[in-house]
Structures are given as C-alpha cells and as structure tokens.
Design a protein that fits this description.
108 residues, mainly alpha, 0% strand
Length: 108
C-alpha cells in the first residue's frame, strides 16, 4: 500500500472504530428498550450485545498490529464489517479499490 493510501487508512481507522462503537451502543439500547421482555432478559440481552460487539472490535481492529504491512488485511476487515462508506473507499488508489473489490467479488 502506498503512502497516500496508508495515510487515508490510518485516518479512516479512527472513524471506523467510532462507527463500530456507535453500532454496539445502538444494539445495546435496542436490547434494553425491548418493552416485551423482562428485566432479566434485558440484562442478558444487553450483555450479549456488548460481548458480541467487543468481539467484533477485537476481530476487526485488534487481531493484527496497525502496520503498513497489514494494511490490506485491516482494510478488508473494516470493509467486511461495513464500516467504510463508498465515498471513503473512493479515497484509496484504484489499485487498492480493485484489490478489495476482487476479494469480495471472487471469494475463495
């Protein structure tokens, strides 16, 4: 990944982290605000929402060091988690966009 793409990824990472935590919080609110459930069910559902969310944080952002050598894998994880918009993706070079697109369009 070239320097410009690396800088774009590094800046985008912080935005993506916040998006993921916002998603976790929305899932937590939905679990707690489920009127048809008992207090016990809400607590257990809230815990499940937090646990699942933190697992996704670890998988997406903590499984590899944030380094240039891991950049493509990091970007793949962010795209797979639906944390990157089309506009943000357009900020990468054509080569990076094609590489990411080819992986999602031609799974193993």
């Amino acid at each position: 990944m070239n320097e410009k793409d690396w800088k774009h990824l590094s800046a985008l990472r912080e935005t993506a982290v916040e998006r993921l935590y916002d998603r976790i919080f929305e899932n937590l609110k939905a679990a707690v605000q489920a009127n048809e459930k008992t207090g016990r069910e809400k607590v257990f559902d809230a815990k499940e929402a937090i646990d699942a969310g933190l697992k996704e944080v670890r998988y997406t952002f903590d499984s590899l060091p944030h380094s240039r050598s891991n950049a493509n894998i990091i970007l793949l994880a962010m795209v797979n988690a639906e944390l990157v918009t089309e506009q943000e993706m357009a900020g990468f070079s054509e080569g990076v966009q094609q590489h990411i697109s080819s992986i999602f369009n031609d799974p193993l």
